[in-house]
């Protein structure tokens, strides 16, 4: 583990930033389209509004693009002011949902009164807030099978991340960790190997950075974004979703076939236990403890300072 000298990490004491944030993405409904925003409030479970909602089947199991690729075509919009510091929704604040061939659906951002028990996503199950019959009917019609829209119930539920990698951190309906970071240079390096380049939306990061070497983010174990400390806890292993074209909802073999050749554990971690996984991006947790009130904000253009890193992907946790 290489520790970078502290004089170079505070943004004015010497060395330049390792990269800067070029985009911030929020995905309010798991597996539906993301929103690109200029800034986002940090919360203990990730950016505010990220993966706060989930579409479930009649048994309460999560629908994701892995089994319902049509979710890729569902556009989600939130009020611009939802990303301002300290903003709270009123009775006229809505999440607006659109999809091909469907009427507009408006979902109030005021928390719904109904509880849905037995909601599950991967290893977790618990209760959630049910967004009601209109949303249920909309998603049922769109997917052609019984569906409900639920919201994470932060008042009563906790969903811890894997304590082996990051003890004491929680998420809402994200797959595994509160934040996922990717660099533009890593995407560019991959696209040079592909016959048809893929856009960043295939990989669904929260934070896109640029200005670093390709795959630098593999090595970052502790970084500062602006003045907030983040820990790089685990390389992001990839499922089927990057093979789904987010404009058509049609899956193909790429970029997974190419990633298998250049980003598999066999290639990156030849001496470690092989799990047959491919890696692209770095999972993060925020090490700050947040108090209610003045919310910390991360913005496009914020610098990334690397405090600690490993020397190769083989040394990174995965």
From TrEMBL:
GO terms for molecular function: catalytic activity; molybdenum ion binding; pyridoxal phosphate binding. It comes from the Eukaryota. Residues 147-307 form the MOSC domain. One of its GO terms (biological process) is monocarboxylic acid metabolic process. Signal peptide: none annotated. PANTHER family: MITOCHONDRIAL AMIDOXIME REDUCING COMPONENT 1, MOLYBDOPTERIN COFACTOR SULFURASE MOSC. This is Molybdenum cofactor sulfurase family protein isoform 1. It comes from Theobroma cacao (Cacao).
């Amino acid at each position: 583990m290489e520790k970078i000298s502290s004089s170079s990490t505070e943004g004015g004491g010497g060395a330049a930033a390792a990269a800067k944030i070029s985009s911030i993405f929020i995905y309010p409904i798991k597996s539906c389209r993301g929103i690109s925003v200029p800034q986002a409030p940090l919360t203990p479970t990730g950016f505010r509004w990220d993966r706060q909602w989930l579409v479930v089947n009649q048994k309460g199991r999560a629908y994701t693009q892995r089994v319902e690729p049509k979710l890729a075509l569902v556009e989600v919009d939130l009020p611009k002011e939802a990303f301002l510091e300290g903003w709270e929704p009123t009775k006229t604040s809505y999440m607006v949902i659109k999809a091909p061939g469907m009427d507009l659906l408006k979902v109030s951002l005021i928390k719904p009164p109904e509880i849905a028990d037995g909601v599950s996503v991967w290893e977790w199950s618990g209760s959630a807030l049910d967004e009601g019959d209109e949303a249920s009917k909309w998603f049922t019609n769109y997917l052609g099978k019984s569906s409900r829209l639920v919201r994470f119930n932060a008042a009563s539920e906790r969903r811890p991340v894997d304590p082996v990698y990051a003890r004491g951190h929680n998420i809402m309906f994200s797959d595994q960790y509160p934040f996922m970071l990717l660099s533009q240079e890593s995407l560019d390096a991959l696209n040079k190997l592909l016959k048809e380049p893929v856009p960043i939306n295939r990989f669904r990061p929260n934070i896109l950075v640029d200005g670093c070497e390709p795959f630098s983010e593999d090595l970052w174990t502790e970084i500062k974004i602006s003045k907030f400390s983040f820990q790089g806890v685990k390389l992001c292993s990839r499922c089927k979703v990057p093979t789904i074209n987010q404009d058509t909802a049609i899956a193909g073999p790429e970029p997974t076939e190419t990633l298998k050749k250049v980003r598999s554990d066999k290639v990156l971690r030849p001496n470690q236990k092989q799990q047959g996984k491919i890696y692209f991006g770095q999972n993060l947790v925020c090490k700050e403890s947040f108090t209610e009130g003045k919310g910390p904000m991360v913005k496009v253009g914020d610098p990334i300072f690397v405090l600690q890193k490993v020397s190769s992907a083989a040394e990174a946790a995965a």
